[in-house]
Q: What sequence folds into this?
């Protein structure tokens, strides 16, 4: 059985899930650097102020077997509303591990703006692409560090018996 995210269709929901993932995984300082200049021009109303709580983390045996409770993680969430000049109202959500309320507010605000077709391209270029590049670079560095410490057992000489 394939996991549900293995073949994500190219739908609006899948695209939104992808940008929310990018925003949640982004370095908080880098997120602030790219988001703050854009967000300064817009107004938002809090629907649900930032709140911190615990989320139950579940895992599967062997990655695909039976589920079990792994533990709890601290998580912060927020919901904001943005009213566009044309009267369109959109709600943005932000979720991230940890206790950084301002970070989650930025995520929710960007989520609301990314749902506006007139701003999506600008935000894609100025915020999401730099964050995705930084995440890819961090993944490449982690992979290189792992590769450097990898043990290659095929180079070990077999014992000689005489």
A:
């Amino acid at each position: 059985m394939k996991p549900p995210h293995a073949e994500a269709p190219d739908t609006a929901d899948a695209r939104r899930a992808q940008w929310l993932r990018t925003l949640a995984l982004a370095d908080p300082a880098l997120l602030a650097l790219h988001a703050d200049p854009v967000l300064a021009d817009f107004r938002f109303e809090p629907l649900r102020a930032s709140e911190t709580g615990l989320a139950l983390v579940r895992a599967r045996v062997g990655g695909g077997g039976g589920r079990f409770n792994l533990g709890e993680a601290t998580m912060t969430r927020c919901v904001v509303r943005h009213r566009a000049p044309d009267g369109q109202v959109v709600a943005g959500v932000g979720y991230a591990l940890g206790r950084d309320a301002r970070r989650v507010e930025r995520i929710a605000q960007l989520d609301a703006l990314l749902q506006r077709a007139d701003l999506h391209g600008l935000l894609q270029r100025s915020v999401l692409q730099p964050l995705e590049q930084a995440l890819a670079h961090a993944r490449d560095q982690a992979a290189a560090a792992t590769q450097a410490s990898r043990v290659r057992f095929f180079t070990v000489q077999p014992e000689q018996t005489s």
